[in-house]
Design a protein that fits this description.
Layout (H helix, E strand, L loop, with lengths): L3 H25 L10 H51 L4
């Protein structure tokens, strides 16, 4: 049915495919610190990601709160200014 040459060709092809799969697996894994075997390296990588995420969220929230504060401050300031003008205008001279 199959000759020794066919089997030898198939064995060589299987070995070639296994080598290609091994190189793809090795290059397919990203070289990031989160996958390091060292615990401290992984811990600092997680801490760094957490720090950057917190920093970005904090910057965004502080911008929103500053805008809200400016809007409310202008509204309260205008109301306080009107109240002060009425108070000063009602004082006898």
């Amino acid at each position: 049915m199959y000759t020794d040459q066919d089997i030898a060709n198939l064995v060589a092809r299987v070995q070639q495919l296994e080598m290609q799969a091994a190189t793809r697996q090795a290059s397919g894994t990203p070289n990031i610190k989160m996958l390091s075997p060292n615990f401290l390296t992984r811990a600092f990588a997680v801490w760094g990601h957490n720090f950057v995420a917190s920093l970005l969220i904090g910057i965004a929230l502080s911008c929103v709160m500053s805008i809200i504060g400016l809007i409310l401050g202008a509204a309260v300031g205008a109301t306080a200014l009107d109240w002060m003008n009425q108070l000063i205008g009602s004082m006898p001279r």
